[in-house]
């Protein structure tokens, strides 16, 4: 099971505490801290589950899948595209992991927010039916050691 990093729900709980304390002291504290608290606590629902035969993804609105591992056609690890107005270097752009079933990307995750993504990438990439290009193999090897 792959989940978002544990820091997100913990930070959400901290924001919720600040929202309650802020509401007690000043009336606007609830509004200032409640919105980020709810957004960060919502990450508790997100996960990707892989068992021996299927892959499933749970979003904020429920489960998607299951998709058979035999149907997975490609795995890609790419740099996130940046708009021309961004001044950061290309090397600093975060990586995005995509798992494709036929022509549909069923899993898309920005890897810096997820713990356990290297194990997921190695497992899915090791399947016989999955096409993993050279660039993706290099990135997986670089980040998994």
Mean pLDDT: 76
Note the total helix count: 4
Main sheet specs? 4 strands, mixed
Shape: elongated
- The share of residues in extended strands comes to 25-35%
Low-confidence stretches: none
Which value, in Å, is the CA radius of gyration?
18 Å
Rounded to the nearest angstrom, the distance between the terminal CA atoms is: 20 Å
Order of helices and strands: EHHEEEEEEEHEH
Helix amount = 25-40%
Task: Give an overview of the whole structure.
Helix 1 runs antiparallel to helix 2 and helix 3 (117-125) crosses helix 4 (134-144). The strands form three sheets. A four-stranded mixed beta sheet has the order 7-6-5-9. The longest helix is centred in the N-terminal third of the chain and has 19 residues, at 7-25. It is α+β, with helices and mostly antiparallel strands. The chain has helices at 7-25, 29-41, 117-125, 134-144, and strands spanning 3-4, 47-50, 54-59, 62-68, 72-79, 95-101, 104-110, 114-115, 131-132. The model has no long low-confidence stretch (mean pLDDT 76). The chain contains four helices and nine strands; from the N terminus they run E-H-H-E-E-E-E-E-E-E-H-E-H.
């Amino acid at each position: 099971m792959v989940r978002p990093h544990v820091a997100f729900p913990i930070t959400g709980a901290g924001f919720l505490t600040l929202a309650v304390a802020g509401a007690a002291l000043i009336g606007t504290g609830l509004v200032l801290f409640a919105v980020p608290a709810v957004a960060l606590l919502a990450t508790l629902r997100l996960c990707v589950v892989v068992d021996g035969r299927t892959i499933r993804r749970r979003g904020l609105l429920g489960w998607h899948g299951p998709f058979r591992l035999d149907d997975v056609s490609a795995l890609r690890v790419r740099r996130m595209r940046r708009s021309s107005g961004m001044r950061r270097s290309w090397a600093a752009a975060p990586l995005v992991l995509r798992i494709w079933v036929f022509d549909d990307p069923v899993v898309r995750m920005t890897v810096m927010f997820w713990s356990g993504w290297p194990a997921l990438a190695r497992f899915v990439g090791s399947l016989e039916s999955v096409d993993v290009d050279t660039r993706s193999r290099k990135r997986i090897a670089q980040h998994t050691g």
